[in-house]
Amino acid sequence: MESRQEIEMYFASLDEAIGKQSELKDSKVQTYVYGGGALIGHQMEHRKSTQDIDVVFLNVPDSANPDQMTQALFKAVRSVAKKHRLAWEWFNDSANAVNDFRDMMPQPELEPWFEGNHLQVLLLSKRCLLGMKLMAGRRKDDQDIEVLLEDLQIETREQAQALVDQFIPDRQRQEIDKLSRTLDELF
């Protein structure tokens, strides 16, 4: 997936597919996007593509604890994958990662992205994305971190720490994830 417009086309297709599921047709699935899909959603020029759209469901149980609504949702997701020749996991709630993510960032800052009749997609803010990527401390996120730091005009270790503290205040979690080491390498 290489552009915001392409992803929005898949969201529109998913919105339509959700409307065809009897368990979901009278509801609106609410979710937010994080990771590479969110960077594309923010139109960050350095991010050219993503393999999948990482999501957190706000009003449907995730795939770790599926109910009939979750099963119907993923049936709709698979129908979109088939229609557009996407990987089955194109709209991915990576259950274990999502539960960890919810614990790590219980009050995310969200922005509107897509609004359909049966699907609302929100976007994790750039500030939250940066906090998440700093906590992950992965080499593959280095370019994303550099671009987000510049875009958000964060120039000091103290500013970066304050941003992480705002969204991920658990100092023990910061220690476990070796945030200090990541910040040492950056500043």
Notable traits:
187 residues, alpha/beta, 2 domains, five-stranded mixed β-sheet, 5 strands
Mean pLDDT: 91
Number of strands: 5
**Number of domains as seen in the coordinates:** 2
The amount of beta strand, in percent, is: 5-15%
Strand order across the largest sheet: 3-2-1-5-4
How far apart the termini lie comes to 33 Å
Low-confidence stretches: none
Secondary-structure element series: HEHEHEHEEHHHHH
Q: What structural class do the secondary elements suggest? A: alpha/beta
Supply Rg.
Answer: 17 Å
**How helical, in percent, are the residues?**
40-55%
Q: The biggest beta sheet, please?
A: 5 strands, mixed
Oligomer category:
single chain
What's the overall geometry? Answer: globular
The number of helical segments is 9
Task: Give structural notes.
The protein has about 190 residues and is an alpha/beta fold. It folds into two domains: about 5-125, no CATH class; about 130-185, no CATH class. The chain is about 50% helix and about 15% strand. It is built from nine helices and five strands. Strands 3-2-1-5-4 form a five-stranded mixed sheet, sandwiched between helices. α5 (about 125-135) runs antiparallel to α6. The chain is globular and about 50 Å long. It starts with a helix and ends with a helix. The model has no long low-confidence stretch (mean pLDDT about 90).
